[in-house]
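Field: sequence (string)
Field: structure_tokens (string)

Example rows 1 and 2, in order.
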Amino acid sequence: MKNKIILIGGGGHCHSVIDAIEFAAEYEIVGIVDHIDKVGNDIMSYSIIGTDDDLALIINEVKYAFITLGQIKTAAVRKSLFETITALGYKVPNIISPLAYVSKSATLGRGNFIGHQAIVNANAVIHDNCIVNTKALIEHDAIIDSHCHIATGAIINGGCKVHSEVFVGSASTTKQGATINSKSFIKAGSVVI
């Protein structure tokens, strides 16, 4: 029997997470919570069954939750939701696409999404509530603090330190050993040296 899971946020990132969950076939999605005006709508055959305010009641039936709200300009909402669901007692798993590679020596916290064809290499560390999107590369010994989004095709080279609440845009590349300060916004196609 699969563990039941509730998804939080019904935008575009939710589609990617649903696809990975269905492919891995490890969880049963019971529904999505989003804004009140979206309740009753469907996303990829899953109903929006409530709002964030309903999470305190939903936990009586569903023990797992995952944040499917994306992150571009700021991590504030994802961070707040993560704090809320952990305080309520939800179990927050990592969702890892079967098409991704995560080294056995890598360390992952909770609530991370590792998308299709993403690579998390040897001794890399990813803390909590991060998005490592499609085809992103986290190289050996890199450290990604909590609440970061490493967008599609971005490359975090070996030994890099990405502090909390950072957005690294699509196709960006870091020099080996680079440090990215908290709450930085790296535009798509950037080179960080």
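Row 2 begins here:
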Amino acid sequence: MSALVVINAGHHVTTQDLGRPNASHYGLTQGGAADWHAHCWGQKLLGNPMTATSLEIVLGRVRFRANQELAMVLTGADCLAEIYSPQNIVTEHVQSWRPFSLKRNQELHLKVPRSGCRSYLSVSGGFAIEPFLGSTSTVERDGVGGLNPGQPLACGDSLAVNPNLSGDLSDLWLQNPQPIPRSAIPNYAGVRTLHLLPCFQFQQFDTALREVLLNQIYTVSAQSNRMGIRLKSNDSETALLTQALPSLISEGILSGSVQIPPDGNPIIMLSDHQTLGGYQKLGVVAFRDLAKAAQLRPGEQLRFKLSTLPLERLKQQAFYRYFDL
């Protein structure tokens, strides 16, 4: 049964969960939500398992209509969201990171975020999508997953909700929803600092190149997408130094890997990255900062800061424990 209809699909909307971590031997990328922090908080606030499906919305400008009453939550990018009555009158301004009710025939409108790039719309019970290899994540480059396999949502698409998980909207949690600590709501403004774990190839970079790559502020390119965040170097010396890097036989890469192509403009691998890569790598963005990377918009800036494996392992384990992963 259709629970939510797409009236305007905006720039890019896909169904996402935690992806396919065990599918790389098939040549398929992991996929999944680019911002695990926002996705997991959305599910937790609704009492869903973390594996439930959410909608990943890039840069807002979408409209949905409810065919039944739904308990929902909006997390991620700081997006102005409003509920419209069937008479096209604004009845409520939706507060992000807090559950709300969308009644039958009401519409939810999202505008361009004030900050951040990706919003996550979650529903009590999770959206009912046929899984592929255990996941509902849409991966366009692989042509798999989602309502229409390998395709983003389009105007007129209808989404069902899992009936076995949906609760009664009169439950007290909707009137007194589980609060989220203020410290857990990200600030997407300003220059982002991404903590970096150096890989073994880091030691093969000469000292001058390492200093240039680590001591500059990069600008996010408009060519960025779910495969990777492309950065533009602001130092003319970078390209000269990276051209001297030795060639590399293609090898497996991870989400967060920072590739250094010959032009000196780093690429941060995101959820839909290819499974093999042939560029030298500076290191891997720490798990805790992948969500920050996913929320970067074209024109925004970032810098890298070295970290250590023991520290980042502790922070990742704490995240996994908190969300029962």
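free_text_note (row 2): The mean pLDDT is 91.
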